[in-house]
Write a structure and sequence with these properties.
Blueprint (H helix, E strand, L loop, with lengths): L7 H13 L1 E3 L6 E3 H6 L5 H9 L9 H15 L7 H12 L3 E2 L3 E2 L2 E2 L4 E2 L2 H11 L13
Helix pairs in contact: 5-6
Amino acid sequence: MKRTAFDERNDRRVVAEYESDHLPCRYCGRTTDRETLGNLGARCQDCYDAYVGRNHAAPVLSMPEKLAALEKMRGLFGASQPPRRWAERLQFVEQQRGGMLPAPKHMGRKVGESQRLTPFQRGAWRDVLQCRPGMGGESEEA
């Protein structure tokens, strides 16, 4: 059937129906159907093809470069602390604070409520420090 007259309501309905099923590509802005965007990481097909065409492999490092990177990470993450420090901290929380973790903070201000240690956290620090309930919290010496 050939359209004989302009019907603005019908045109708006068609446009709204099309727009409800299409969104802009996150990278180039081209209107693309939702299914494609969902499958390709919010990219249209052209942007996805360009993305997967790039080489995403990590660079191959020599042993001295790997050691330098390791030392840098140790500096960033405080390798000067003993490896079991986290377990000792959870032990302290359970024994001295009644099992209540401190409230989370952001920029020095409390942003939440204190929470209890989970059974997993209790079991984890006991396993690492080789403590059992009823032993007073001291670690066993082998």
